[in-house]
Amino acid sequence: MPDPRARSLEEYLVAAARLGDRAAAERLVRLRGPRLLSHAARLLSNPDEARDVVQEAWLEIFRGLPGLRDERAFPAWSHRIVTRRVAKHIAAAQRRRKAADATAETTEPFAAEEGALSADAEAVRRAIKALPPDHQAAISLFYLDEMSVAEVAIALDTPPGTIKTRLMHARAKLAQALKGSCDE
After folding, report:
1. Can you tell me the distance from the alpha carbon of 43 to that of 61, in angstroms, rounded to the nearest whole number?
2. Residue 144, SS3?
3. C-alpha dist (Å) from residue 51 to 33, 56, 96, 135, 163
4. Phi-psi region of 131 (alpha: psi -120 to 50; beta: other; left: phi over 0)
5. Which of 80, 83, 86, 56 is closest to 68 using CA atoms?
6. Which 3 state secondary structure label does DSSP give 19?
7. Are residues 145 and 73 in the same domain?
8. Which of 57, 91, 125 finishes a domain?
9. What is the Cα–Cα distance from 56 to 154, expressed in whole angstroms?
């Protein structure tokens, strides 16, 4: 059974944060945050991803706080938000994996159609396959499917800035990998 004083403190902090008290909001994060983080970590089995999800959840929590009618409902309400965020995170990861798998499937037929690939083309294909799935998907959609950054962002359900960053890192990794294969 939860400590009634701690529960009362949390209810007070929720009410104060709803009225715009920044210090109360910060204290609420310190008080409830570890529980939300452990909940997300249990669902995701990845502490880094759990931290990201909980950070996003806090933004949604504070945006929705004025609509919360009963401060006593805050614990369950905030956990539900984290659970929904985890579900969205998992769904996005599955979409990224499917996009990466589809990209791998679409590059394979080209190799079969052309018969023997040139050594350079084979080196590029191997280098792309060595990239992380999210980088593979971004590179493939951008260069092979000739999508714009905005279109890739929509396809991967990821912000355009993230797509630009993934493309930058993927290009750097490809250049490094291809430089190494050219030196041999």
Report:
1. 19
2. helix
3. 10, 9, 20, 22, 21
4. beta
5. 80
6. coil
7. no
8. 91
9. 19
Domain residues for the domain of 152 are: 116-183
- Averages of pLDDT over each 10 residues, the chain, 184 residues: 82 94 96 91 88 96 94 90 90 83 61 58 82 81 76 76 93 85 54
Cα 8 from Cα 37, distance rounded (Å)? 21
Residues in the chain: 184
Asked if residue 62 and residue 123 are part of one domain, the reply reads: no
What the block records as the tokens of 36 is 């939300």
Distance CA 184, CA 172 (A): 19
Contacts of 70 (CB under 8 A, 6+ apart): none
The crossing angle, in degrees rounded to 10, of helices 74-114 and 22-44 is: 50
Q: For 89-112, give one letter per residue: b (16+ CB within 10 A) or e.
A: beeeeeebeebbeebbeebeeeee
pTM beyond 0.70, yes or no: no
